[in-house]
């Protein structure tokens, strides 16, 4: 019996606990309806602030559109700059090639000039040799004429002596025909008559061989003269061809110099125009960079103001309730109290008369329960280990089920450590949710950066300024159907 009564008592205790839990749930629903009515009334009273919030959002949307347009224009300008640089590089390469060709042509012209000088020297040498050959030929002709004249005189003397001897003997009464005198060669002047020396011996039997030797020497001299004339004519033809080649090379050199000078002038004009365009592009980029920095600073200031308004609204919303969830009287807000730091930014919603639960730091306060419509929003502030980024995790719960989770971090980070901090923060988000899978939920990761110091444009190039970072990661699930 005792064994059968214990399960009944445990069931009875469970029923009592279930009844108490249902009563507690009914009480929470009544409180939730009351809070909804108060929130509706509060929303009606704060309609003007909502309108101002809408205007701020419109301004932020416009600023984002302007930033996107400026980024697109900046990309187009960068593309145009790259195209201009590529064209300048192509023109420079062409100019280098033309300079190389010009140097090659100048070297070739110098070689041809040296060849011309050598040919002139060879021509002068050949002319000198030809002149000496002519003088030698004239001397040979004079000597030959003298020898012929001497041989003729000797032959006449011999004939006269023979005739005289025959007349004395009575023989040889025949008439002699006059022997024609030898004519000089065409183109040669006649040799001057030479007087016969008295002491010259008259040879008798050696006259005929001397005449034949003189004829052979004359023929050899004439053949040598003909060969020399042929060589002289060939050299003259070669010299004329070299002169013509020199004139053609000089004309081509002048034409090439004129052509390349015109091309260099055109290239210099185009390079000057491209340099002017590049300077304009650089000025435009600098102006756009400055304007972009100003817009980023304005955007960050607007985000700070929006975050401040959001915290003020949340604090005014939380002032309806006490620390234990019971409604209490709304107290007026006083802005002369000292400010607290929340998520790296000032919180101006804390008063002197607020309870210690609201004045304590977020790390000691723990989780905060807030109502929004029919949802329960659980906010849990978490500070990072290194103190670089302060993280706040938020959960939206409906009927005990998590609909949306998000994490938002604020902090100031060095520019070189942005990637490392983002990876650590994302890893900590997934580490805090072991059941979370990247493929099973919808994640959204936003990164908002702005330079912490507005005067960062004046900083040195080797020391990059710190960057204020706002990291947002959200995951959402489909809202389950409410069973009746």
Automatic annotation (TrEMBL):
* UniProt feature coiled coil, ranges: 11-80, 264-319
Q: Which UniProt keywords apply?
A: Coiled coil, Intermediate filament
What segments bear the compositional bias annotation Pro residues?
A: 181-193
Region spans: Disordered: 161-216
Coiled coil as a keyword of this entry, yes or no, is yes
- The reply to whether rRNA-binding figures as a keyword in the UniProt entry is no
Which Gene Ontology cellular component terms are annotated? intermediate filament
Pfam family of this protein, just one? Filament
InterPro entries listed in its UniProt record: IF_conserved, IF_Keratin-like, IF_rod_dom
Q: Where is the IF rod domain?
A: 210-320
Member of which family? Belongs to the intermediate filament family.
Protein name per the record: Keratin 222
Native species of this protein?
Astyanax mexicanus (Blind cave fish)
Q: What are the leading ranks of the lineage? A: Eukaryota, Metazoa, Chordata, Craniata, Vertebrata
Gene that specifies this protein: KRT222
